[in-house]
Write a structure and sequence with these properties.
Elements lengths: L1 H19 L4 E10 L6 H12 L8 E7 L2 E4 L4 E7 L2 E4 L9 E3 L3 E9 L1
Parallel strand pairs: 1-2
Antiparallel strand pairs: 1-7, 3-4, 3-6, 4-5
Helix pairs in contact: 1-2
Length: 115
């Protein structure tokens, strides 16, 4: 379960940030998670709880924003969603593409800090 090592890395990063800001209390960590990231959302949520135990993040929440898969369609000349992650074809015109522009994210983008 690589979600536990990812959760531990998230907790470590958040602890470092809390220390830089004078040991503030972190209430929540906001994460962008692409559907092609290879990370299982539910497994990451439960791993996060385990990784937070006995740390300054204990009791904090992991808030996950799921990012859909988008490709660059050469026919439409723009980013488009896909109908299915098995077939990387433009949802508008059906043109296949291997240029994934969104959906691989695994990014902490915000921390909610309390007093």
């Amino acid at each position: 379960m690589h979600e536990l090592s990812i959760a531990m890395s998230i907790v470590e990063m958040a602890q470092e940030e809390a220390g830089l800001r004078g040991n503030v209390h972190i209430q929540a960590v906001h994460l962008r998670l692409g559907l092609l990231s290879g990370v299982v959302k539910d497994a990451l949520l439960s791993s996060y709880e385990m990784a937070c135990e006995t740390t300054v993040l204990e009791g904090s929440r992991l808030i996950i924003e799921e990012i859909p898969v988008e490709i660059y369609c050469s026919h439409c000349r723009t980013q488009r969603p896909v109908h299915s992650i098995q077939y990387f074809c433009c949802a508008e015109c059906g043109t296949p593409s291997a240029k994934v522009t969104r959906g691989k994210e695994l990014e902490v983008f915000a921390l909610e800090i309390g007093e």
